[in-house]
Amino acid sequence: MTKNFRGLYAITPDTADTDGLLAKTRAILEGGAAIVQYRNKSSDAALRRTQAEGLLALCREQGALLLINDDVELAREIGADGVHVGRDDAGIADARRVLGADAIVGVSCYDQITLAETAVAAGASYVAFGAVFASSVKPEAIRAPLTLFHEAKRLKVPSVAIGGIGPANAQQVVDAGADAISLISALYDAADPKAVARELAALYR
């Protein structure tokens, strides 16, 4: 399933406004996003289920992938394409056990190629590095050099860049070899999310 794992990767912001979230995500998908990650740290399970199901319907309609951040059970319950886990989240093996061999399991590797090597050996579908630039969402995040994306080519899985990416600097990340660029604020806070998505998705065409 990761054969075509490439392009614009949208990550949702924490919000209780389900209608607004879905409307913006629809615009971002129509602009060309290939992957959406539902990320909401709310403890409201019913809200998270409702939002995830709405996002899955949009992704199916637009031919995009939906991943769930750090919630293997939610991914299983709604039939999402997979999950994204961090260093402190549920392990790759647990995700595979629950979701099966065909699920996408992405792993945050921060600024460390050694973490990526370990993740791939454990069965990760893709590896994510970041923050590649200063991030307003996670200002304390470790900075990851762009050279990691060239280095990661030998791992034979897609690499994803995250952190501080926007229209002004995205080309640098694409040129460095990232298979996908992930954004939150630059998409969801934009006055015209569809236009920004179209501009960024075009970097991979």
Automatic annotation (TrEMBL):
<feature type="binding site">
    <location>
        <position position="89"/>
    </location>
    <ligand>
        <name>Mg(2+)</name>
    </ligand>
</feature>
<feature type="binding site">
    <location>
        <begin position="184"/>
        <end position="185"/>
    </location>
    <ligand>
        <name>2-[(2R,5Z)-2-carboxy-4-methylthiazol-5(2H)-ylidene]ethyl phosphate</name>
    </ligand>
</feature>
<feature type="binding site">
    <location>
        <position position="138"/>
    </location>
    <ligand>
        <name>4-amino-2-methyl-5-(diphosphooxymethyl)pyrimidine</name>
    </ligand>
</feature>
<keyword id="KW-0808">Transferase</keyword>
<feature type="binding site">
    <location>
        <position position="164"/>
    </location>
    <ligand>
        <name>2-[(2R,5Z)-2-carboxy-4-methylthiazol-5(2H)-ylidene]ethyl phosphate</name>
    </ligand>
</feature>
<dbReference type="GO" id="GO:0009228">
    <property type="term" value="P:thiamine biosynthetic process"/>
</dbReference>
<comment type="pathway">
    <text>Cofactor biosynthesis; thiamine diphosphate biosynthesis; thiamine phosphate from 4-amino-2-methyl-5-diphosphomethylpyrimidine and 4-methyl-5-(2-phosphoethyl)-thiazole: step 1/1.</text>
</comment>
<comment type="similarity">
    <text>Belongs to the thiamine-phosphate synthase family.</text>
</comment>
<dbReference type="Pfam" id="PF02581">
    <property type="entry name" value="TMP-TENI"/>
</dbReference>
<feature type="binding site">
    <location>
        <begin position="37"/>
        <end position="41"/>
    </location>
    <ligand>
        <name>4-amino-2-methyl-5-(diphosphooxymethyl)pyrimidine</name>
    </ligand>
</feature>
<dbReference type="InterPro" id="IPR013785">
    <property type="entry name" value="Aldolase_TIM"/>
</dbReference>
<dbReference type="GO" id="GO:0004789">
    <property type="term" value="F:thiamine-phosphate diphosphorylase activity"/>
</dbReference>
<dbReference type="GO" id="GO:0000287">
    <property type="term" value="F:magnesium ion binding"/>
</dbReference>
<feature type="binding site">
    <location>
        <position position="70"/>
    </location>
    <ligand>
        <name>Mg(2+)</name>
    </ligand>
</feature>
<dbReference type="GO" id="GO:0009229">
    <property type="term" value="P:thiamine diphosphate biosynthetic process"/>
</dbReference>
<comment type="function">
    <text>Condenses 4-methyl-5-(beta-hydroxyethyl)thiazole monophosphate (THZ-P) and 2-methyl-4-amino-5-hydroxymethyl pyrimidine pyrophosphate (HMP-PP) to form thiamine monophosphate (TMP).</text>
</comment>
<protein>
    <recommendedName>
        <fullName>Thiamine-phosphate synthase</fullName>
        <ecNumber>2.5.1.3</ecNumber>
    </recommendedName>
</protein>
<dbReference type="GO" id="GO:0005737">
    <property type="term" value="C:cytoplasm"/>
</dbReference>
<feature type="domain" description="Thiamine phosphate synthase/TenI">
    <location>
        <begin position="8"/>
        <end position="187"/>
    </location>
</feature>
<feature type="binding site">
    <location>
        <position position="69"/>
    </location>
    <ligand>
        <name>4-amino-2-methyl-5-(diphosphooxymethyl)pyrimidine</name>
    </ligand>
</feature>
<dbReference type="InterPro" id="IPR036206">
    <property type="entry name" value="ThiamineP_synth_sf"/>
</dbReference>
<dbReference type="InterPro" id="IPR034291">
    <property type="entry name" value="TMP_synthase"/>
</dbReference>
<keyword id="KW-0784">Thiamine biosynthesis</keyword>
<dbReference type="InterPro" id="IPR022998">
    <property type="entry name" value="ThiamineP_synth_TenI"/>
</dbReference>
<keyword id="KW-0460">Magnesium</keyword>
<feature type="binding site">
    <location>
        <position position="108"/>
    </location>
    <ligand>
        <name>4-amino-2-methyl-5-(diphosphooxymethyl)pyrimidine</name>
    </ligand>
</feature>
<keyword id="KW-0479">Metal-binding</keyword>
